[in-house]
Amino acid sequence: MNENTAIMATYGLQKAYGSCMALDGMNMLVRHGDIYGLVGRNGAGKTTLMRMISGQSEPTGGEMELFGASGKDMRAQRSRTGVMIEIPSFSPFLTARENLEYYRLQRGIPGRHVADEVLEQVDLTDTGKKKFKSFSLGMKQRLGLALALMNHPDFLILDEPINGLDPEGVAEFRQILRQLNQERQTTILISSHILSELSNVATRYGFMEKGRLLEEISAETLHDKCRTCLRLEVDDAAKAAAILQTQLGTDKFEVLPGNVVQLYDCLDDPKRASYALAQNGVALLAMEQKGADLEAYFLDLIGGGRHV
After folding, report:
1. Is 8 helix (H, G, I), strand (E, B) or coil?
2. Is it true that domain 6-217 has CATH number 3.30.565.10?
3. What is the pLDDT of residue 304?
4. Which residues of 104-142 are buried (b: 16+ CB within 10 A; e: fewer)?
5. I need a surface site. Which of 74, 206, 239, 282 has the fewest CB within 10 A?
């Protein structure tokens, strides 16, 4: 596979619960090698989407593809996925290895060594005879991830896997995901309310609101959009752009609708920009320094609102 290979795609995907549209024309693309961060408020449709990808729920409209297969052919391809939508029902009186061995036999996964391999991947090899009931939340989350990894998936689907973890647990989980992605080339779809942490691992984002995908964007492009800049409101953006190039010798800017120029240069001396514009007949109506993190970008995208 190359980096442009589609792992999962949806086309106008819909899911209705009576008169409520949980997904309303969802168009989305996850490529090979992505760590795809799915961002949306509670009720946006993230979990509904993940349940349909994993086969736990059926769409009421639209189409979906998994590893290039669609319809009934997707069933075979789902064997290449690992899913953690919520912590599985582990026996409280069994050890980590015993719980995994139970699921290995139930699912018909060959090889007694598999449980040991995935426990090592998620750093749970030292739990020994400790019972699941005595595990911390972070350990329970990692065991859930280990179960999702038992079939060596090419595509890993994780719904809020770091929710409720302490900072150390979040950092450990983040490191595991990076290793899976970089060393094993596992494609990952992950949703999280902890947007600052999502921004530490995601290579691509999808922003959801009310069952629709508002935007897909690479982490690199998002970083460019969120970086600090001078926002210049002028009376003639085209002329201002020419002045920035010829007078200040910079092309680190973009022209936006409404005669707005975002300048990523002169941040330590904004007077240089305002003086150059004024001297060359461009009226500067407003100037402010701005920047945004992932949460601010998302809230701006949906037009403000409560915390995600």
Report:
1. strand
2. no
3. 56
4. beeeeeeeeebbeebbebbebeebeeebbeebeebbbbb
5. 239
Give the largest CA-CA distance in the chain.
Answer: 78
The phi-psi region of residue 290 (left if phi > 0; otherwise alpha if psi is between -120 and 50; otherwise beta) is: beta
Q: What tokens does 232 get? A: 């210049």
Model confidence over 57-74: pLDDT tens digits? 999 999 999 999 999 999
Residue in 120, 38, 50, 105 with CA at minimum distance from that of residue 78: 50
Residue range(s) occupied by CATH 3.40.50.300 in the chain: 6-217
Is the pTM here over 0.85, yes or no?
A: no
Mean pLDDT score across all residues of the chain: 91
Amino acid at residue number 86:
E
Instruction: Reply yes or no on domain 228-290 having CATH 3.90.660.
Output: no
The pair of structure tokens assigned to 159 is 């719904």
Of 185, 227, 220, 226, which Cα lies nearest the Cα of 202? 220
pLDDT digits (tens, 9 = 90+) for 133-146: 999 988 999 999 99
Phi-psi region of 67 (alpha: psi -120 to 50; beta: other; left: phi over 0): left
